[in-house]
Here is the input.
Amino acid sequence: MLRTLIVAALVCSTCAFYMPGVTPRTFGKGDQVKIRVNRLTSSKTLLPFDYYELPFPRPHKGVIEQPENLGEYLTGVKIENSGYHVYFQDNKDCQYLARSEYTKEEIRKFQDYVVMDYHVHWIVDNLPSAAAIDDYDAKTQTVVYDLGFPVGKRHMGDIWLYNHAKMTILYHSPKDLKGNSDPSKGRIVGFLVEPLSIDHKYTGTWDESKGSDQLTTCRRGSSQPSMDSSRAPMIITDDDREVIWTYDVDWKSSKIVWASRWDTYLSMGGRYDDEVHWFSICSALMIVFLLGGIVGLILVRAIRRDIAHYNRIMTEEEREEAREESGWKLVHGDVFRPPATYPGFFCVLNGSGVQLFFMSGVVILLSAIGFISPSRRGSVVTWFLLTFVGSGMSAGYTSARLNKYFKGADWTTPVKLTAFFVPGVFFGLSFILNLIVWAEGSVRAIPFGSMVVVACLWFLVSVPLVFAGARAGYVSAVPEPPVRVAKTARPIPEQDIYWSTPVAIIIGGMLPFGAVFVELFFIFSSIWLDQYYYVFGFLLLTWVIMLATCAEVSIVFCYFQLCNEDYHWWWRSFITGGSVAAYVFMYSVFFFFKQMDTIFLTTTVLYFTYSAIIAGALFLICGTVGFHVCLWFISKIYTFVKVD
Here is the structure.
């Protein structure tokens, strides 16, 4: 029965549902449907730009920016209106948008953005556009669901500009309480854009009032295929060029209900195959069970035997014989001695690690249960920021209690460093990167007002919470060590090389990384290749498995370290638990050269700096977990032995 419940819980946790995020809007026939533009993105540069950074046709009434939340500002999401006129269930064929005459500089800008593989992002009813990409070489159409659609494409040395958009909008007519539906009303459940390059032709002098009626490349009222060999592509050269922008609108009824309209986008054309994730989870669980068996068979049995043997010995001769068999009891007078190097800084890192632990755990859990939805753009970043700020009390509490456990004389310095050191490093690096992005003119640059808001949250909310938690930590009583600390430190015998810190880092990080490396590909693809990631159920399981593996590895290495009579376990346990971060950073290097297609120095700096920030946060989280489980483990084993 228990096994069935566990299996059911695992299955349910991976099937994380989501909340659509907005109130469904039902459109009636002829109602205006606003086409909003978002931004231009490229995985080659990692620098998003405003949609109107390129000289696309602007709306006649001017560009109006839609209000955004803090997370959207921090991630460079900028939503604006467009000049496209779309009405519910009103099909349009080769509708004229604008005629633009571009200079050489503007044409060259289009060429540069095509070469850098920039994609255009549109939004309809809070639903992002997916792309249907045509295979011109094979003369076939291959529908590939992707975020946005490219500005153009390179074809046999030429650069084609996509100046025609074929929009296919899916709608579903909801049923009332009696089970009836009105076909003239519906909710938008899909938005597909097929970009085409058409060198539009017309006779005589262009008349703006006639629009597309004078285009010879448009056969209005006929069912044209998407691929038409009679229409030449819009090839842009270094010369001045006239470009005519057009679009089609095709409304189609769909059986997809409004609550499931994100399924296609979240699956990303089958990129997130559940079998791959289940394989990753199963292999990770095997590692956890293997390590658990090692802990159970080697440590538990050995410790029970040692404890029974120690407590049974009565004569000095038998005690000396026991000391030769095992050495972890010999260091009972030094095992709880505070770290010899930087004990205050050790408290700071653990406090920040606990803060990051709560931040990541809360956000992953809320995402897994569906509270955080992709329809709320910027919501993940907003929740990361708010939970980090709100977890300041846990950081101060942990740092203060640990410093009190070490009987530290100065309690103000660790608390101040807890409040300012790690957040200051993250904020400082982000500020420097923001200056670089701002110099490039990217919308990823955080506005000054948003930086002020983040700074206010830090100084006015997080810092007071850290000090409040520190006060609570110092006031509360800390448990006394199960054994007394000797007045003089015991000399540590010479250690074998295979129990050194570098070996602990190599082996200790390898096993947790082996449990998560499959999922890392999808996470990095989501972060750097502008793809949706929404298998948060698998992410939650992976996160738990990684922490469990780090805990087990830390306990194993800590036990054998004590058996070798080396009682400097504080920093070793923290570094062993956090060593998985080194493998994650090395994987980011591999991912950069394997998946990223960029030659820009700015992109390289952004990628590796952000990867270092992610690896640093992971180091603090896993290191804190490794230390705390080792502290619990050591306290337990020394509780059961009798010490003279």
